[in-house]
Specification:
Radius of gyration: 20 Å
Distance between the termini: 38 Å
Shape: extended
Strand content: under 5%
Helix content: over 70%
Structural class: mainly alpha
Number of helices: 6
Number of strands: 0
């Protein structure tokens, strides 16, 4: 029985190390934090940004391990969901801008002059996918 626990601990630590390394590489290679401080003209506060990212990652890890129940009102969850959606949408948009994903994808699928069609397909796909997920998985 103890060998199984040791194997699970090893796999958990190895997985966490791999994901953490990927996250740090993502932030470092793309230069997300310096670019953010440059755009917001808050270069003096770069340590605050870094601390916020570390605390956010630790809070996310603890929340995924402990699975907390917050007992909040449904009305509080609406702005929480909106801000979460805006954050992930902006993160996805920043990644596509930095990596030039859309122009490359448009050339691959031969939509060079019709980039707006590709963008609208992505937008409507996200909208309908979110509605489907909410109706099928959340509302049931």
């Amino acid at each position: 029985m103890t060998i199984n626990i040791l194997i699970v601990i090893f796999i958990g630590l190895a997985s966490g190390l791999a994901v953490g390394s990927g996250f740090v590489a993502f932030l470092t290679v793309l230069g997300i934090i310096p670019r953010l401080t440059q755009l917001t003209k808050t270069m003096k506060m770069i340590q605050h940004y870094e601390l916020a990212i570390v605390l956010g990652a630790l809070t996310g890890v603890l929340a995924s391990i402990r699975d907390p129940v917050l007992n909040l009102s449904s009305y509080f969850l609406i702005p929480l969901g909106i801000t979460g959606g805006v954050f992930f949408g902006m993160l996805a948009a920043a990644l596509t801008e930095v990596l030039n994903v859309l122009p490359i994808l448009a050339k691959r699928i031969r939509l060079d002059g019709e980039l707006i069609i590709l963008i609208m397909a992505i937008v409507f796909g996200k909208i309908f996918g979110s509605i489907f997920q909410w109706i099928y998985f959340v509302h049931h």
